[in-house]
User: Which sequence fits this backbone?
DNA sequence: GTTTGATTTGTAATCGATTGCACGAATCTA
DNA sequence: TAGATTCGTGCAATCGATTACAAATCAAAC
């Protein structure tokens, strides 16, 4: 049933050598037109398909890249993967997917598995709980390009594609200020992660630049889910000087905040403005649509793929590229007073 | 720099044969404990990593499966992939992702590319515009398991994992009837696709079972996006006998419908109930949350993976398995009158 | 001291494709 | 027509691992 045709089968059929068949198929100039034509025809007739595994073993290149993300069903990450896939597929690359579930151990496993699978490169978003860096060095030591996207670590020799989280935080905060908000709070994620730290710093900088004073009580660090958004508002409500706006580093926190604000009878955006981060699909579908900072994940995927391609092209020149994409602020109802 | 260690390197270091090394690493009982220990230690010392490519070429099994979906950044599909990945990864399989963009040509390309890559199986959701079936036969002829999930075609030898779309349509419609709705409309996708046809049929059956008469004017077939939802409502508004509920075969259509209903000043769910399909993440985040039929995509992925595993296990027994999962109705505000 | 038998290791083919080198034939030069 | 080129193919090694079969080693038994 599994009638795999190899070049040897073709060779036998034509009473020539596999070497000749191989050369003919690869359009080697040393082969006569006659045999070339013959080989191509017989190959088609016998339904020959090149065995990429054999090729990969011989050439040392598998034409496969590994992509590691925390969860692939998170829109942000699946969009990045889409971007990567679309950039690499036309060049004959395949994309292998791995999930870390935000666990360092799994991340290390994934990397080892991908190395065993002889991938030509690894593109990844570092897990939240990763502290070691040894496994990254293993990759580099084997001469395999490594590209971080979104979540990065400082590792020499690794190219990164990130968005300017500082700018994102700054833009969002500035926008809130321009809407007339005076007491702008910030819901932050774990700031041991660079992305959250930078968003926070952008927020602070905007406050400073526009003469608003920073209030420690206005900053809450929590998980990025709806419930934490509720809790954050509950805390804010207890303050004497309540905030009148939130820049949230997560759309889910923003959503939770909005729900709880409504429960408290607070009118959005009239009395309170909210801006989220990530531009999750749901933010634009809400009746009270949520302003959010878009990270253009597909483009990030494209870029990560391109960076990888540059690295394989000039394998000798070890370039360590740092691409920083600019975020876009999507202004929606939750922060539109005009 | 790329200091790849092979079993030959280990063999040389220990002055033995690669065959012995191989056996030792595979814990072959014919190897003495002494050499086993020696080999394992040296392997660890030399940082040996098995080359899966060589293994794959030799064994004919790549421990890789291909997954083909229309778009990976659609929540439904990325969730399925998550389910597949999580089931197969612990068994040492890798998942290669391909997107068809709903185009038949791309689908064929993908399949060929995956066959060339010597995948051990292909799990896929058929593209909307696929009419030919030849490329599926190619896969089967090579003896490679093929599993359809969600979108299927009638191909002998292919196992399928689907949800009971009929039941989904039936449940949703029945629920609307029980909420007291009398004139239930249906927004449908292209019914040349089985899934939409079955949802439609479930809808009709429920009407019949509960003594409501089917009204052709209440059924609109369109694309699955928000705008089409608007248009559908515009049409319904022109009817003398307007519907008082919608079962939509898409959440996006449902959302569009709700938006337009509100624009017409119609109160949901008091005057009009809506149920969507797919349980897209946004449906539960809306302030007016949307009832929807959940397809449990992760479980669908798990199941598809398991079906594949059964097929590889009993390669000789060609079982054509048809698994039909039951959908769940998520009742939310858009249809909760009680 | 040989035979027997078990135990351990080596030899060499194999998976499918590529490629440097060599060889034979055809063509050309003088 | 001998000698030099060119052209087209074949030979055989290689990528890294597995494995049937053969061979070597050693110990115990007679």
Assistant:
């Amino acid at each position: 049933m599994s009638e795999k045709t190899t070049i040897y089968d073709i060779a036998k059929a034509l009473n020539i050598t596999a070497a000749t068949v191989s050369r003919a198929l690869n359009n080697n100039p040393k082969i006569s037109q006659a045999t070339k034509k013959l080989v191509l025809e017989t190959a088609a007739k016998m339904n020959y398909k090149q065995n990429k595994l054999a090729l990969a073993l011989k050439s040392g290149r598998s034409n496969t890249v590994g992509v590691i993300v925390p969860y692939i069903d998170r829109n942000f990450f699946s969009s990045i993967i889409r971007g990567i896939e679309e950039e690499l597929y036309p060049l004959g690359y395949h994309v292998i997917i791995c999930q870390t579930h935000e666990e360092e151990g799994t991340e290390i496993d994934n990397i080892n598995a991908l190395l065993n699978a002889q991938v030509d490169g690894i593109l990844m978003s570092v897990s939240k709980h990763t502290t070691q860096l040894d496994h990254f060095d293993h990759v580099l030591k084997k001469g395999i390009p490594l590209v971080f996207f979104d979540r990065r670590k400082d590792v020499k020799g690794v190219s990164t594609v990130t968005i300017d989280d500082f700018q994102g935080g700054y833009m969002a905060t500035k926008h809130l200020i321009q809407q007339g908000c005076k007491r702008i709070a910030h819901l932050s994620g774990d700031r041991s992660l660079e992305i959250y730290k930078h968003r926070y710093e952008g927020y602070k900088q905007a406050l400073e630049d526009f003469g608003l004073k920073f209030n420690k009580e206005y900053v809450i660090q929590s998980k990025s889910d709806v419930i934490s958004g509720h809790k954050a508002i509950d805390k804010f409500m207890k303050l004497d000087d309540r905030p009148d706006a939130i820049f949230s580093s997560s759309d889910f926190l923003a959503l939770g905040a909005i729900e709880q604000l409504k429960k408290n009878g607070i009118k959005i955006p009239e009395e309170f403005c909210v801006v989220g981060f990530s531009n999750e699909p749901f933010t634009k579908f809400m009746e009270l649509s949520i302003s959010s900072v878009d990270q253009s994940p597909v483009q990030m995927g494209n870029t990560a793929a391109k960076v990888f391609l540059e690295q394989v092209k000039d394998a000798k020149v070890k370039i360590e590229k740092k691409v920083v994409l600019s975020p876009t602020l999507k202004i929606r109802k939750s922060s539109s007073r005009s």
The mean pLDDT of chain A is 94. DSSP finds 13 helices and twelve strands in chain A.
